[in-house]
Amino acid sequence: MNPKVDPDLCIGCGVCAETCPDVFEMGDDGLAHVIEGADCESAGCCQEAADACPTEAISL
Ligand code: F3S
């Protein structure tokens, strides 16, 4: 799994960082970013975060 946040779709709601803080973090730009070296398999919450994103900005 290779999580990505589309910066054109992200509205910075923060749900992904709340749902899956091991993989997603909020940046200074107000948008979500994938934490470097984050591992969806061991975090086990990427799908949940992607499903929770209101703008479907997360691809896996
Ligand atoms: Fe952005 Fe979606 Fe996360 S809008 S902050 S990628 S839940």
Q: Which labels suit this protein?
A:
60 residues, alpha+beta, Alpha-Beta Plaits, two-stranded antiparallel ribbon, 3 helices, 4 strands, 27% helix, 17% strand, binds FE3-S4 cluster
Textual characterization of the structure:
This protein has 60 residues and is an alpha+beta fold. It has one domain (4-59): Alpha-Beta Plaits, CATH 3.30.70. Helix content is 27%, strand content 17%. The chain is built from three helices and four strands, in the order βαββααβ. Strands 1-4 form a two-stranded antiparallel sheet. Strand 2 (24-26) and strand 3 (32-34) form a beta hairpin. The mean pLDDT is 97. Bound molecules: FE3-S4 cluster.
Write the layout of secondary structure elements.
Elements: E1 4-5, H1 15-19, E2 24-26, E3 32-34, H2 40-43, H3 46-52, E4 58-59
The structure holds FE3-S4 cluster.
FE3-S4 cluster (F3S) is lined by residues 5, 10-16, 32, 53-55, 57-58.
Query: Helix and strand succession?
Result: EHEEHHE
Which CATH architecture? 2-Layer Sandwich
Number of domains: 1
Report the uncertain regions.
none
What is the name of the CATH topology?
Alpha-Beta Plaits
Shape, please?
globular
- CATH level 1 name: Alpha Beta
Mean pLDDT: 97
| Bound ligands, named by name, code or SMILES | FE3-S4 cluster
N- and C-termini, Cα separation: 6 Å
Largest sheet: 2 strands, antiparallel
What structural class do the secondary elements suggest? Answer: alpha+beta
| Number of extended strands | 4
Beta-strand portion reads 15-25%
Strand order of the largest sheet: 1-4
Helix content: 25-40%
- Count of individual helical segments: 3
